[in-house]
């Protein structure tokens, strides 16, 4: 069928006009060229599509049947072209983002707020999930963008850094005072305290587990929490010692509602940023990357 597409267009315009001369003006081609194209189409289909007289042309029964289908096809193509034009004019698109709950609140939302103001017609889908799942979806080209810690093995992924974060252990001063009153000033807090960590599905937890293993830290009593927000709130109400991201509790550390627990060595910082698959370009992704570039310039 591909080789006849132009012939179908000519047939469609002639059928609409009912006159070869008018169709020729509409298509900006000569009348003989139109007659030749119609003849080739009729020959290839093995039917007559028009009857001709001095007033013009009229569709045969077979021509009427073909016209119904070509009319639907070209109207469908016209709608597609109009939709593409609308998308181009209004920057309409779809941006699919994967992000953990924690990074969504503390990293992504401020950027999204400004991006939506600049590009209000782009549809945004958020997949809230673990960072490991986000990286997997990026590699399999199932999402456009991920907010993650910089991956060690990037493969086909590009990474745009946003900020460095550092994990630390915090509690209220009252909790530490009571723990030392009960267990002694020299107590090993990881043995006697209530250590609150993210659950094992979280990449931050795996990072902290590696840190504790490297420093022979073996918590005796662990409370697993599913989100960083809950972990921070539990620490604030004095439930125990929480492993949190320092940058996300900066205000609480500044006003003294939380205190930082000294560690043998600080936990190594991680870089958080936006990652995307270089094999999956999209207009919406390109707009977001340009927005990020303008923000960080």
UniProtKB/TrEMBL annotation:
CDD domains: PBP2_LTTR_substrate
Span of domain HTH lysR-type: 1-60
Domain of life: Bacteria
One Gene Ontology molecular-function label: DNA-binding transcription factor activity
Keywords carried by this UniProt record: DNA-binding, Transcription, Transcription regulation
Family label: Belongs to the LysR transcriptional regulatory family.
PANTHER family, per the entry: HTH-TYPE TRANSCRIPTIONAL REGULATOR (PTHR30126), HTH-TYPE TRANSCRIPTIONAL REGULATOR CITR (PTHR30126:SF64)
UniProt protein name: LysR family transcriptional regulator
């Amino acid at each position: 069928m591909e080789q006849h597409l132009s012939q179908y267009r000519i047939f469609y315009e002639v059928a609409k006009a009912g006159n070869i001369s008018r169709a020729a003006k509409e298509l900006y081609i000569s009348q003989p060229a139109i007659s030749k194209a119609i003849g080739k189409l009729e020959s290839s289909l093995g039917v007559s599509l028009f009857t001709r007289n001095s007033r013009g042309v009229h569709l045969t029964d077979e021509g009427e049947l073909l016209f119904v289908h070509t009319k639907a096809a070209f109207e469908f193509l016209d709608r597609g072209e109009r939709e593409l034009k609308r998308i181009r004019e209004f920057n309409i698109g779809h941006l699919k983002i994967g992000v953990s709950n924690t990074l969504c609140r503390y990293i992504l939302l401020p950027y999204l707020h400004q991006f939506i103001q600049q590009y209000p017609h782009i549809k945004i889908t958020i997949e809230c999930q673990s960072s490991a799942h986000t990286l997997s979806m990026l590699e399999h080209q199932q999402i456009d963008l991920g907010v993650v810690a910089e991956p060690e093995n990037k493969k086909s992924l590009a990474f745009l850094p946003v900020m460095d974060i550092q994990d630390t252990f915090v509690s209220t001063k009252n909790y530490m005072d009571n723990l030392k009153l009960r267990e002694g000033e020299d107590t090993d807090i990881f043995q006697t305290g209530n250590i609150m960590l993210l659950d094992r599905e979280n990449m931050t937890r795996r990072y902290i587990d590696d840190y504790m293993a490297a420093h022979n830290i073996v918590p005796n009593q662990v409370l697993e929490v599913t989100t960083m927000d809950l972990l921070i709130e539990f620490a604030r109400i004095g439930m125990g010692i929480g492993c949190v991201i320092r940058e996300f509790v900066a205000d609480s550390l500044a006003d003294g509602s939380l205190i930082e627990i000294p560690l043998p060595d600080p936990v190594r910082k991680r870089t958080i940023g936006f990652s995307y698959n270089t094999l999956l370009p999209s207009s919406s992704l390109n707009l977001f990357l340009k927005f990020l570039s303008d923000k960080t310039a």
